[in-house]
Write a structure and sequence with these properties.
By secondary structure, this protein is mainly α. The protein is 71% helix and 0% strand. Helix 1 runs parallel beside helix 6 (111-117).
């Protein structure tokens, strides 16, 4: 009951803080619209680079453009949701340096909710929208013999992927507490991770594929379940049921990230400023 109460309190605090930033951002409507549109265009350059590659080749690592677009859309959309909800966690290091993190510790609200909702930016919807547009085109264009399990697996990938990326954001923030600011390391696994997943696993070495499958299981965001949807063998030879393991992996990642966050908070020592 105590954990449920803490969760409810955290969600309420997150909603109130995020709502405050949304109202602030919507004060100037024209600026907001242009910012969202600009964010959509900038993030869309990633997919433009893929289109430029396919203007010279017919396939990449044996995967066609619609198949890679499916990977891209799944990764970009899932990451966009996580980035919108918890993308502000990478500034935790600067908060510790200037002493403002101590202010969050004495407020009557869960610290994780405060850090996650800090500077909540609706403009990040541009990334989600852009990823969703690519995903929609891929689902229409890809050559797949759709079945009920494959259809249901698409929304499961999106929800599980967002949860996995969210866990990486939280774990990265916990690492910053120990390292006293390591935003670049965190970004390597968040922004770097989504860029990695936008390309097929066949273009990477086996050791890297094993690493993002068994050590930091980002592969369960799209690589593993998408291989099932596209009827492709996964490079490191997983059992068939692994395609449906994304929700379990997401839960495991969230539990480990929560443990890392609590451990980080307990070990935090104030800067004294």
């Amino acid at each position: 009951m105590a954990e449920r109460s803490t969760l409810a309190e955290g969600l309420r605090a997150y909603r109130l803080i995020a709502g405050m930033w949304v109202r602030s951002g919507m004060t100037y409507r024209t600026s907001f619209v242009f910012t969202v549109f600009g964010n959509l265009l900038v993030t869309g350059l990633d997919f433009v680079s893929i289109l430029l590659m396919f203007s010279q080749v017919d396939s990449l690592g044996g995967w066609s453009l619609p198949e890679i677009a499916l990977l891209y859309g799944l990764s970009a959309t899932a990451f966009g949701v996580a980035d919108m909800l918890l993308g502000s966690m990478d500034v935790l290091g600067s908060r510790m340096r200037d002493g403002s993190f101590d202010v969050l510790l004495v407020r009557p609200a869960p610290v994780l909710a405060q850090v996650g909702a800090d500077r909540f930016a609706v403009r990040r919807l541009g990334r989600v929208t852009q990823g969703a547009l690519v995903l929609g085109w891929a689902l229409v264009s890809v050559d797949v013999d759709w079945s009920v399990p494959k259809v249901l697996l698409v929304p499961v990938m999106l929800v599980s992927g967002a949860a996995i990326f969210s866990a990486v954001f939280v774990a990265g923030a916990a690492f910053q507490i120990f390292a006293q600011d390591a935003a670049e390391v965190q970004n390597a696994f968040t922004y770097g991770g989504t860029t990695l997943l936008q390309y097929p696993p066949t273009v990477f070495g086996k050791d890297l594929v094993r690493g993002v499958t068994f050590m930091l299981p980002l592969a369960f965001v799209n690589w593993v379940p998408a291989a099932y949807v596209l009827d492709r063998p996964y490079p490191v030879g997983l059992p068939g049921w692994a395609a449906f393991a994304s929700p379990l992996v997401a839960v495991g990642c969230c539990l480990l990230a929560g443990l890392a966050w609590r451990t980080g908070l307990r070990s935090y020592r104030s800067t004294g400023s």
